[in-house]
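Mods, move this if it's the wrong board.
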Amino acid sequence: MATYGTLLIPLPLDRAVPVLREVCAAAYAAPAGPGFCLVHPDRFLDGNGVFSLAGPVSAALGVPVLAAFQYDGDRLELEVWRDGVRAYRYDSSPYDRDDKPADGRPTDADPAAFLDFAAGPVDGYGLACALADTPLDERDMDVDGEPGYVWAQDLHWDVLAALGHPGQVSARAQRDHCHFERAPRILAELLASGELVVVGKAESREDTP
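Not the wrong board. C-alpha cells:
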C-alpha cells in the first residue's frame, strides 16, 4: 500500500495559502470542505515532511494542525500541533517503542485531542474504537487472527469519518505529493480547475521516487 503524508488545517484554503507559500519548500494544497484544507508536501525535500512542517504552520496560522503519516499500509502516525508545539502524538503500531504494550495495541489514544478537527457531529464511539485499533467493520479487521486493522489507511479513514469528514475528504487525505506528480494529466486538470494549488518556495523534484 502506498505511503503518504498530509496536513489537515481547520482553515479555508485561501486563508492558509499565504503562510503555506512561505513555510513549505514544495507542496500541493486543496480545499477539504467548509473551513478546512489539506496540504500534500513533497516529503523527499529536506525539512519538508509533515512532522517538520506542522509546528511552523500551526504557529504562523494560529490554528492547530493535524499531521498524518501512513507507512505502507502498516502504520499510522498522527501528531497534533498547536502554536508551534506538539500537543499530542498517536502511533497505531507501537511495536518498536521501548514502552510497547504486551498486545501491541496503542495505549495513548485520546479522542479529545482530535476534536479541533471535527467537521460536523463527532461519532465519539467510532473515534475511540478507531484509535484503540478496534475496527467496527469486520471487513477492516485483520484476517490473520491479530487484533486491529488490516490496513492503516482504513484506520485513518475511520478517524476522519468519526470527525464528520465526508468520504471525498478522507480519500484526498490519503494522497501523497508524489501521487499527483505521477499522474501529470490528472494533476494538470486539478490545477486548472483550482481544486489543487501549488505552494512552496522551491520547485518540486521531477525525479521523486
